[in-house]
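DUF6816 domain-containing protein
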Amino acid sequence: MFFVVVILSLQNALAFAFNPNPNGALSDFSRRDTFNFISSSVVTSSFVTDLPRVPEVGQGTDIMSNSDAYSDAVYPKSLKGLWEVEKTVVSSEGDVGQAETAWFLLGGAKEAFKSKRGETYETLYVDPTSSSSSYSYEVDGESVVGVVLDRGFELKSRADTSIEDVSYDSSDFNHLTYHRQKQTISIDTVQRQVLLPDSKGWGSNELLRITTPSPQLYRAVKVSRRYRRSYEGEERVIEGIEIVKTYRVMDGIAGTEYPTSTTKSTLKLRRPK
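Tokens:
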């Protein structure tokens, strides 16, 4: 009887420690005039227990389940084409090792993270491959079809020469793979919330599962971005903020209630000259 009590107590403790959100959704963006929005996150799992998984309890997320991100993040139609991005780390709190790993796996250079000197790369916005109404937003009462991010192009542009064979198809916008140091890295979007463009800005909140081999590890990265139009002198620019948080993972469940690190970066986009 004693051993039964111990096992049940352990199961209850795990369920309490790694509880997901009851509705399985990420937190909504608030449409406030302030230029704030919800943070992002990264999760690491190095082993799998024999206990049953508890995927739908409390403040955790099952990162091994099929994606429920049925449409991509939507950007204003006017962004279509090539842009130059300046990205600068403003702050990094908590487990710096986790934060740096997330930055590196998403294509960033480690030196740019450590020195906070920032990095410059190109990004590309293209027409969506689907005619779904989820890519539409309203401007002056009229429906406009937005554009989407070419994630493969951005990763190749941002990454150093150690990244090779980036594989991405905009029709399969929840999946991307690349090779680095002879290893295949996979990035899959598990959940996504989209803030459609309006006069205040636009953005997205994405929970990513990053899979690395040898040994196989699952990391969950929640990346939140918010953008707004602005001016730099007479030049029209796009200003943004990105927040990435990291979390612990057990048995495929990310404990998204308590981040292990938080990294905040500023973004500035301008047309290449």
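The mean pLDDT is 81.
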